[in-house]
Amino acid sequence: MDERLTEVLPGIYRLVLSSNYNNINKINIFIIPGKNPERDRSLMVDVGFHDEDCMMQLNRAMKRLGIPYSRLDVFLTHKHQDHCGLAHTVERMGARIYMSPGEGRHHYDCLHYNEKSYQDQASVLKYAGITMDRTPKLWEMFTSAVKEDTLKEFSISQFPYLPVHTRDSFRYGEYALEAIPLKGHTFGQMGLVDKKSGVFFCADQIIRGIVPIVATSYKDEHLLRGYFKSLKNAKENLKNCRFFPAHNEMLQGEEVGRVIDHIVFAYLEKIQIIRQLVQHGRSPMTVVQIAMLAYGMQELPKTQEQFVFLKMITSKTFSCLEYLLDEDFVSREERNGVLYWNAG
Ligand SMILES: [Zn+2]
Q1: Domain residues of the chain, as ranges?
Q2: CA of residue 244 to ligand 1 center, whole Å
Q3: Whether CATH 3.60.15.10 fits 5-105+156-261
Q4: What is the mean pLDDT of each successive set of 10 residues along the chain, which is 344 residues long?
Q5: Which of 108, 190, 275, 325 is deepest in the core (most CB within 10 A)?
Q6: How many whole angstroms from 80 Cα to the centroid of ligand 1?
Q7: Got the DSSP string for 8-72?
């Protein structure tokens, strides 16, 4: 069998897809074939990068497992390009797509956009303090990236999907899975859990060796608070499961707690730095100003890589600021759509 396709538990296969042009270049796709794949429905958790080579790898795995696309259900954990880049393509080949409507609510996010997102971008950037008047150079970088489609790694073609809600159940092969919300990394991220068999597809919520980005684009989404709550739930209530993340290796036993603690500490440290910056600032600051200070970015990005980094730290800082606001450590004022942050 292809070394990229392995049976990780009886009846659960992992396919590792890789892409050359993406900065996250590997993703784990999980497949649970139906008892009779020709006739019964099979499940795929996430579908991978929009990339010809990935599509070929996917086709090969489907063939090996004897699953026709017309009998395939694809559960998308969240709307990031590495997870649903091929959703549009497999949907047209006959697959049925499931996703949380929380992920489809906006056309634009710091980490994804589609053909309709141009209008939404202005208000999102404004929240963070990036406007045509205040920061003309940054404004130009963001708008041209979407207009000219230079940030292909964030672009996602639209696809129709069936909405998934908390507790919806999915049965494939020997497994009875239940959808659980994994707010944090994104607003509507969802995972699948089968407590009886001890299986948890935890998407980008808990990954070994990585502190997943909690990416806020819109105000009042309380993503970091939701993230901490979801990590606590995973640590307390799902500790007997094997965790199958979308990146890196499976986690189980005590390691789960250690990985979760590491993520929480990393965020608390960043939150503390950001809190001090806001408290010692001479005047209220915008998200992008605070982000550049918190991450020691002294000048505007010159390369594509620096630009992507700024995009990431802006959404991460926004999450930390919203958490500080939720906990009354900072205050916020909105003027003409721009958010200004001040000591609480
Ligand atoms: Zn993601």
Answers
A1: 5-105+156-261
A2: 14
A3: yes
A4: 84 91 78 97 95 92 97 96 93 98 83 70 91 93 74 78 97 98 96 98 96 94 97 96 96 96 97 97 95 96 89 96 97 96 92
A5: 190
A6: 5
A7: EETTEEEEEEE-SSSSS-EEEEEEE--SSTTTS-EEEE--B-S-HHHHHHHHHHHHHHT--GGGE
